[in-house]
Every structure is written in structure tokens, then in C-alpha cells.
Amino acid sequence: MEGHDMLYLYNSGSGRGRAGFGAEAVCALFEQRGWHAEAREIDFAANPFARESRPDLVVAAGGDGTVNYLLNGMKRLGLDIPMGILPAGTANDFAGALGMSRRPLVAARQIAEGHVERVDCGRVNDHYFVNVFSFGIFTTTSQRTSDESKQRLGRLAYLLEGAKELRTIHDVPLRVTADGGTFETSVYMALVFNGETAGGFRLAPEASIRDGLFDCLLLERRSGVQPLLAMAEYLMGGRSRAVRHLRAARLDIVSPADEPTDADGQCAPRFPLSIECLRGGFRVVCPSADERRALFSE
To answer: For the domain bounded by 127-278, which CATH number is listed?
Structure first.
């Protein structure tokens, strides 16, 4: 890539704090390639783009929640700045879909030498998301898992926090309209994927961030079927009649329940829900095809 001003925005609470520790090295790498680089810790109480000067490139260091926050900050101001993603969170699902290395300086080099592409993002009501929107059992686990636990235990922290939800498992009645077709159901969990993984688990292997469609999984209430066993069967490659899979560019979902929702590990809008896949709605820096192949062969 060629450009002028790069802004390195890092979440000091992500990935045992390594995003902040690496700021100087990442900026030095870009400056060696002719960029003017500035590093700033993200203030989650303010929009980092609400200033007169605008960078040519943003490099985001953190997890999916960090990318979510920065994307929403840009969209609220009508900005379309390309973003490079340095995975420094716990799961880094969206960065994985792009083919980014988990090694910070390797990822920084991938960004410096990469190219800008337009990939899909999602919008639910007035909130944007990059990887997955969800509600139901386990789906708000990330919101309740403390940064301290994530830093100490990694993905195990999600599993331990999620286990607490087994005491309150319940189904949610829905009316779903998917690309014009309507059906009614009752679900224990709903996952709307833009990417392939959630919390590091590959739940939507056919999903793509470049096809203009969501891959949706609904864990439905079915007579005689235990929901957790049905999901376990699905994860092991089986076909459970309790798991409904559909692909759609737009979903409208209503429910009499007041159920919390989640987008990329962050609080998201409540019902009713209007969910749209915005094809090419997010400019990101991607590594070359050779780099991606090398990463997946490691």
C-alpha cells in the first residue's frame, strides 16, 4: 500500500495488553515504508474520528469488538477510510476471515504490503457489525466475560462464563422474514454470520465475507430434542433437525420477548430487528493470496 497518514488505534484491554506494547514497533514498520504514523489508545467514550484531520489508513489493534466499535464510529460520520486489522483480541474471528496472521509484526507487514478490498458488513437497525449478530443462549457471553478473565484464560473464559447460562436456558418465539419469505418458529439461539467463526469455533463453514449473504443458524425448539445435544451434533458435522440453516441478504425478525442481542461481542439493538448484509460495505486491507495460503498451511 501507498499513502500518507496512518493512525494506529489500539485497545489496551485486548490480548493481554499486547496491542499497546507493540505500538512503537508497528509505527516504525510503517514509517520505514514512507508513512507518517501516529498511535493512540482507543477511548471508548468518544468517537476517534471526530476530529478535523482524517488519516488515509486506520490500523485497528484488538478483537472483533474493537473493529465493531471503529466501524460504527466511521459510519456515524459517513466516512469510508480503509482499515487494516491487527488481531490482538481473544478470538479474532473477522481478522481470521481476512487471512491475517496472529503474530503482530507479521500482521502489520501484511497490512503495509497488502491491498484494499471491499468486503461485506452487516447492519442491524442502526448498528453495524463485521462478524456475527446473535441472540439466545450463550450469545451474550462475551459481553459478560471480563477483560481480566479473557487476558488470563483466553477462549476458556468464554466457555466458563457460558456454562452459567445453562441454568436459565429458554426459547424465544419469533416471526422471521428472510428475503421476503416468512415463517414462525421458537429458538434457543440465533446466529447471523457474515464471517465463518464465532469465539474461534467454525460454525458457518460455507459463509463468506464477499458474497452479499448472511449464513444463519437457528437452534429451534423441537419436541423430544435436547437443544445442547442438537448443537453438539451440528458442531461434530452431523445434521440435527433442530438446527435450521438459511442464507439471506435481509432478515426482519419480531418477537413478543424482550431479548438482549449481541454484535461482535458488544450490546446490540433490541427487537424488532431489521438485519441487512451490506455487500462491499467495509473497506479493509487484505494480505495477498499467497500470504493467505501460507497462513492457512501453517
So the answer is: 2.60.200.40
